[in-house]
Input
Amino acid sequence: MTLDRRRFLATGGVAVAGTFFPNSLNAADANTEAAAFIKDHESRIRPLEVQVNLAWWNANISGQDEDFQKKEEAQNKLDEALADETAQEKIRVLHQLYRDGKITDRITARQIHLLFLQYQEKRGGPLLKKINAKANAVEQAFNVFRARVDGQEIPDSKVRSILKESTDSELRRKVWEASKEVGAKVEADLAELVRLRNQHAVNLGYKSYHQMSLTLNEQDGPELDELFDELDDLTREPYQRAKAEIDARLAKKYGIPVAELMPWHYHDPFFQEAPAIFEANLDAPYQKADIIQLCSNFYKGIGLPIDDVIARSDLYEKKGKSPHAFCTDIDREGDVRVLANIVPNEYWMATMLHELGHAVYTSKNIPATVPYVLRDAAHILTTEGVAMQFERFSKSRAWLEKMGVTVENGKAFDEAAARSQRHQLLIFSRWCQVMWRFERGLYSGQWEGGDPRKTANEAWWDLVEKYQLLKRPPGRNAPDYASKIHICSAPVYYHNYLMGQLFASQVHHALAKEVYNADPKTALYIGEKKVGEFMRKKVFEPGRTLTWRELTQHATGEKLNARAFAKDFEA
Output
């Protein structure tokens, strides 16, 4: 059976502005029509989605113009298929049936709702092509960019190592400023992207791209504002105390007064990570360790093996390759890959635990019996949460030693790791406040404080000063906000990281209670296959059959909240 104009008219459908509402269609027919659309969608769209994923992977591996052109072409083909007028009309009608309660099969209804959100975003094809072209150019600019200091090109890993290790304030300033130069290269394109994205959203009936993105991801702006305000209150004073300790130690290391600390005195370009301020070197255990083998052993030990993922992945630095890490599920049939640029330190140990945490929460562990449309993580925030849940072990001496890695001066390492982990949670929370509030203002034109005359860079530094307590460099007038790749290439995404941290803490506490009946701080997972069983049953296997709110309740017995997160950063 197909959903077409004649059938709707025959069953009493009424045409309104080109859309047909089947007033007398019964539930049996509604379920049949919905199932037919889903089957047709999969046959048309699935091969195009696989092509997009492969093209995206290849472009990020090579950085070549040809590969980025293929990536753009593949995305345009997918968008055109989703923008098809007949398919658009059918999904609008089916979604109305869903809203009217006529699609009674729960799994079918869930697919129709998610497909409606997917198709709605792709209305207005010509404008989407402009957005894709511009976004593609920006992403390529980030991939091929390398900071230049005193005429010498340095890779991202070198930028990080200098900011982590050098005590030369002038060198640090040069490297920090060089890392931000990509912002000037993409500033104009980003401004155009914001304009085009907003135009697209308004065309679809939304106030802004920010509002549209949240709606299409089953989130609510006022609800998130309330959550971020709560987290601001919860973390403000602990963060102030932690930063005072960090500042005192950094100032002593550099031989300058605390008042002279600038953004380049911290250990990453955005101060989103905890600086290495303690005597124990958290990198030391990893300098001779095999990070990939550690990951392989760990995930195999908990019953979630990832050797096949490792075999398909691209894990080390090379020219033109994206300097950032990510995991991707190519086909929702088990072809899962990780792109990384591993060097032997704690940062990359954490990153690989993180990315492989994404990998186990994919079609590797979501059953093939889950329909294709639903064979994915419940939400961005839940997959980020799982990745963060596993990532945290990189700072655990007990975890390292049980994994067979020697840790010199264990007591000092323990103290440094525990305090660094606490600092990390607080620092990242405050950094996410900047990202959430900046992007909200970027797309609404209403900066925090209500002054629409601010430039984007002024608004950026206002937020950095307020939430991160960093000083803006005197006289600096550069588009530093544009040097953060997520603002350009993954817009209105970053808030999910902080929500993921809440999810990570909440799931870990629930797992510790159910599997270990013990303090969450002692649950290391190593060699315990019940951990994998818990994660599969409580988190992975539902896929997108549950919303993120339902999955959180299913996995932890509670709504998403900050209580477990707060316990994790207690002094």
About this structure: The radius of gyration is 24 Å. DSSP finds 23 helices and six strands in the chain.
